[in-house]
Write a structure and sequence with these properties.
three-stranded antiparallel β-sheet, 4 helices, globular
Length: about 140
């Protein structure tokens, strides 16, 4: 089974999920079949204050296994580390994202409240990108 999601709908879904608290102005742009460019404004908590910085990053899907998506990125803007972003995030996001070595982030999709019941019935097989859509492929469990 294949699901196509327009970028603007996915951007809206992400904005609602993050509720404009820590990640705002999310924009996605097609790069190639396995890569999109993600732009956003991220609020991070530093030891003495909060900072809001723009982030623009190319993110590629490396692998999809069951409900986990492995993403790779070249670098974070201004050498911002994923760990700093995660430390600033709410607990639900910390459970959803796992920073790994070599510019890799593991996304546990089953930790997203609206998707966990769906993933009990289907298994993700792949994610690819087209100029206007995100393609998600599933099989029934």
């Amino acid at each position: 089974m294949r699901l196509q999601i327009p970028y603007n709908e996915f951007e809206q879904l992400l904005s609602e999920y993050f509720q404009q608290k820590m990640i705002r102005q999310i924009k996605l742009a097609y790069v190639d079949e396995s890569t999109i460019q993600v732009s956003a404004v991220v609020k991070i908590k530093l030891k003495v204050a909060e900072a809001t910085i723009p982030v623009k990053e190319k993110v590629s899907v490396k692998m999809v296994v069951d409900s986990d998506i492995t993403l790779t990125h070249a670098r974070m803007a201004f050498d911002l580390k994923w760990e700093q972003v995660l430390e600033s995030c709410e607990d639900v996001v910390k459970d959803m994202l796992e920073v790994q070595d070599n510019h890799t982030v593991l996304v546990h999709v089953d930790k997203i409240n609206k998707l966990n019941t769906i993933l009990e019935k289907v298994e993700m097989q792949s994610i690819s990108f087209e100029p206007d859509y995100i393609n998600l492929c599933f099989v029934l469990k």
